[in-house]
Amino acid sequence: MDTELQQVCARLVEIFQDRSRYKLLLGYRDLEAQAVLNLLQNLLDSPRVKDPKLKNELVVAVQRLSKKSALYPECFVLKNISIEKNSDGSIHALSSGKFGDVWRGSMGGRNVCLKVMRVYRNSKIHELLKAFSCEAVVWSQLQHANILPFYGIYRLEHPSHDRICLVSPWMTNGNIDEFLADEPNADRVALATDIANGLKYLHANNVVHGDLKGANVLVNSSKKACLADFGLSTIRDPEVLALTTTNSSTSCGGTIRWMAPELLNPPETDEPLNTKESDIYAFAGVSYEIFTGHIPFYEVFRDQTVIVKVNRGERPSRPDQATSTKYGLTESIWKLMQDCWLTDPDSRPAAAGIATRLASTPTQRRQSFLSPVSFRAFFAQGTNLESQLQRKELLRLLDISTEPLLEGLSLDYKG
Fold first, then answer.
1. pTM of the model
2. Residue 116, helix vs strand vs coil
């Protein structure tokens, strides 16, 4: 590591270890916050920064500063995306939800998916932008074969307001339910193992998914399952603020039929929060979809009735022998699902144990897309690390003390 880089990393370590100085760093806004976010993310993306403890602290710092400033690193910004349109010139929305649409586009010869924030006139636009920034920051730090890569943010200009889009690879096979409907003979154990490995990676990095279900598991062209939709994801770390979006169906987020009993009926004194253990409960619900072809409690029409049943200790019904044989639901897999559905969160298996129980040797399948860091290196905008390390006015922002900060800084971080 060269001298300039060593000095910057040493300054940051000192700041991370000093609560007062760290608080001042998180107090930066506007241009100063943007400059620091750019630097921290470029350090994270640099192969020259190898210390895992420092990288973890950088991740936490980016997440916290983004949350407080409603900004995101400029290297996330993408340009020149062509969006698929209808014959009349209108944008073709492939799916729509309460808070956004999904569009298909292309960039540099690659098909991409755009998750688009829908803005209403009376919306709290600043809060929605903050939520999208938080999702982008959480998602951008995740790099694993069973996690849908985050490529960046695209701003679509509009006469009255910009549209903010989160960009990821286009997954030709759709979500896991759609894929299995088209390919019923697919290796369902391998898909469940993919999901367990993705969850294992998230939990090892203190990330709780918060809304695990079949619709949020996508299948790539190599028939590998990838966890997606990190809008309700949270960082469960004592020093990190919970990063959640505004589309939570409850204060903890999630979808009723996949939600653990402690989320549906929390003690009156506690605020329900998604946890690694509630993710494990939801994993059993996804497994139920994979090995039965049904959503949990498919026989029950109303979600409120599902809540009552779960709080009584009931769980989704076991399919008959013919269905079990058809979809490969063995006795050991059903026992695993039951263990994940245990009422006591502490009694549920960890994601690492689930992956081991499902398969001792995971199926090896080719990865079919660029990693997020590689994609940003090819396509993203922003200032590179080398130029940042040479800018004295930027490095002065790291000379934090509890004395009043220097005034009159004139910073231009676009070049």
1. 0.83
2. strand
| Cβ contacts of 184 within 8 Å, gap of 6 or more | none
CA distance 210 to 279: 6
Segment 8-49, tens digit of pLDDT: 999 999 999 999 999 999 999 999 999 999 999 999 999 999
pLDDT digits (tens, 9 = 90+) for 259-276: 999 999 877 766 788 999
At how many degrees (to 10) do helices 351-358 and 331-340 cross? 170
Instruction: Count how many Cα atoms sit within 13 Å of the Cα of residue 200 in the half-sphere of its side chain.
Output: 19
Beta bridge partners of 100: 117
Instruction: Identify whether the C-beta of residue 29 lies closer than 8 Å to the C-beta of residue 36.
Output: no
All residues at 6 or more sequence positions from 81 whose CB lies less than 8 Å from its CB, including other chains: 105, 106, 107, 112, 114, 154, 165, 167
Number of other residues whose CB lies within 10 A of the CB of residue 294: 15
Tokens 């200790």 belong to residue: 313
* Structural domains of the chain ordered from first start: 3-75+381-398 (no CATH), 82-169 (3.30.200.20), 176-358 (1.10.510.10)
Rounded-to-integer distance, Cα 415 and Cα 85, Å:
33
Neighbour tally for 334: CB within 10 Å: 17
Could you tell me where the DSSP H helices lie in 48-167? 52-69, 125-140
User: Can you give the length of the chain in residues?
Assistant: 415
Q: Are strands 93-96 and 100-107 parallel, antiparallel or unpaired?
A: antiparallel
Alpha carbon distance 170, 231 (integer Å): 18
